Amino acid sequence: MKKAVAKSKKPVIKLSVSVNGNQAEPMRLLGNHTELPEAGDVVKVLPDRLKSTVFAKQVKVERISLENGKKTFHATTGF
Known about the structure:
Layout: E1 13-19, E2 25-30, E3 42-47, E4 57-67, E5 70-76
Parallel strand pairs: 1-5
Antiparallel strand pairs: 1-2, 2-3, 3-4, 4-5
């Protein structure tokens, strides 16, 4: 009989991301990240409204803005 192996829960990093000038939306940062991305970083994100990683996007963070106490990551897919 096989024993069930519990997967370790990794903290989910949620970001507000604006891709290619569109309105910012909540996204999850995929991969093994312990820190928030910085300008110039290429990261993989998945919109919260989607569940399958098939729809993940690889984006390059162009700049980070702080509006009303909320950080928004402005990114592009064309790099």
